Amino acid sequence: MYRKFIIFLGPLFLLLGCALNTVQSNNEIDFKVKQLLSEMSLEEKIGQMTQIDFSVIAAELNSENPIDQRKLEDAILKYHVGSILNAPQTPNNQAQTVAVWRNVLSSIQAVTGQSRLKIPVIYGIDAIHGATYTKNSVLFPQAINMAATFNTDLSFKEGEITARELRVAGLQWNFSPVMDLGRQPLWPRLWETYGEDVHLATAMGTSYIEGHQGDDFSAPNKALTCLKHYVGYSFPINGKDRTPAWIGERMLREYFLPTFEAAIKAGSPTIMVNSAEVDGIPGHANYQYLTTILRDELGFKGFTVSDWEDIKRLYTRDKLAANEKEAVKVAVMAGVDMSMVPFDYSFYDLLLELVNTGEVPLARIDQAVARILTVKYQAGLFNPPKPLLPEAENFATELATDTNRQAARESIILAKNDQHILPLKKSANILIAGPNANLLSVMNGGWTLTWQGDNESLYPKDKLTIYKALQNKSLGKVTYLENSVLDKQAALEASKNVDVIVLCLGEKPYTETVGNIGSLNLEATQIKLANAMLATGKPVILIMTGGRPRIITEQADLASAVILGFLPGMEGGEAIADILYGDYNPNGKLPISYPRDTNDIVLYDHKPIETYESNTYHPLYAFGHGLGYTSFKTSDLKLASDKFNMGDSIELSVAVKNTGLISGKETVLVYLNDVAASVTRPSRQLKAFKKVELAAGQKQTLHFTLKPEDLSFIGVDLKRIIEPGEFKVMVGHETATFMLNKP
Ligand code: GLC
Description:
By secondary structure, this protein is an alpha/beta fold.
């Protein structure tokens, strides 16, 4: 008995010890921050709030060392900057080797060592699908693709590998993940989101953070994340980047805040602010969002960083501030803790003036600087420098590359497969054509080796385009038709002796305003090419790559098969070839609704009014759509009861069977509908999903638990509530109903 008692107590002490440890370390950090703050001059404090682009400390472009030592000393010793961002050779940043990065970071550390208080610089970098700006890093499918995997384990691994590869180079702060919701398909950063659904984006984003940060982001193989772009940036009413979003507070709280709330709970210590404006207020001037909601409601303790030059732009673009000085005051007082200035020291100079004249209270500076220093302590930046992770076992490893290839495979959506034309025989003779057939950049998108990702010459020579990957695997003949501008006669000629045409269309890489477009319609030249190929009478397999769902309705109707590749990353070519030849059984599902027409933007979680009378949800391919080379059937949907009380969890089960002839993976999606409520409710909302692998004929029962908050919504008074009444749970073709009793 006694021994058992001790055994029981053991783990308890351990748990208590850990908890105490955390509390101590937080208290310890608080003490150190207070201590340091008390020693800092106003200039040193304001320097901590200043983030500059690498170009401010850059040497001449083609010099051996990318840093100009005098400019670096100016930045750190004169302006006391707290952070530097981006890669050398900006503004169109260029990926650097691990060795160059290590030199850059150690040069910065050396000058910091000469400063009075030796406060470390935190270096920020965009590493949104792997270590973007480190040569030969593992570059994953972009977020829209990771969402299409519906595989949170893969998202966790992506975070883990990205953090590790950043740390090999000495980098430690990643401006990722994007927690914006992709509900406007025209937006040129749709592909940087996890799609249109709150639950899916939350699941994928929090898994990424957990992998990236672990339990302690100061660990040598972990790194800090940065949630972006808080909040409502991704829903510009006209679809163009950095233009107004008109989002009412109820919609904000229902759709755009929950992913950030979950990611804050997952422990991300920094948040980047929305570059645009919501409801007439620029993100960087929005006290309600940045302080009342983010701090008082969501309890965020980390620090906020502005997006690119966006404090200045409160004056130069938004005309909200009468001058730059007022812009600094508005942003700092709204709740922006660090300014991505990024090209000069104007923020530093103006904020110094504002504090000295009492227009910005010193207390606000201390608050911002305390937040920044706290994160730097939590990141271990003040600790004596440790040797960096050895490159050999931690960078671009075979395991990481295999994980990347698996992610690419699971991220690709087989949208159509008439007469099971796919998979192809390896002996098939193929004509491959289209502007996206023989490029890597079209499968990676922006933030790849350079900001826009469009410098094909920088892409690794050992990675395969779709064409090269097919050629590699084929036992037949693969002819690549380089000329993408041809008429029907030429197409007939070219396709005379082939079994099938693989047509690769879509978009070139882009990000941010560079990618703004006026219509989702395909480019005219691509439509012409497609029609020529479709007119040959040969079976056409249409493969789309790019960041947005371009309109392919007519072409897809005539094609024998359609593959939606979006941006599957550096292993995308091999993954597409694996799928075309059946070496991999596709299982990706759409994380967005694929529109039938450029103005027909209705999302899966539409309101009843959107499908009333002649209104329909009738996308070309629906949210959650995705085929494979086997088939699955769900059945026996059961609820633990048909009545529940407020606060109950809803237990349910459903069977899923592989009714086909080969093994495969299937994601079972659980939707909920609140039948009647005081605010109109979506016809359905994804509330849970599970991905399983089943052998041919295998059947498995899956169990799900819906938590009380899964039944909640933002009520008339803008508070999250749950109302009693009828609810429906929908899985596959089945629906089960339950009543939630009045309290
Ligand atoms: C850009 C982007 C943001 C990125 C930042 C730093 O303007 O909006 O996503 O992290 O600048 O590169």
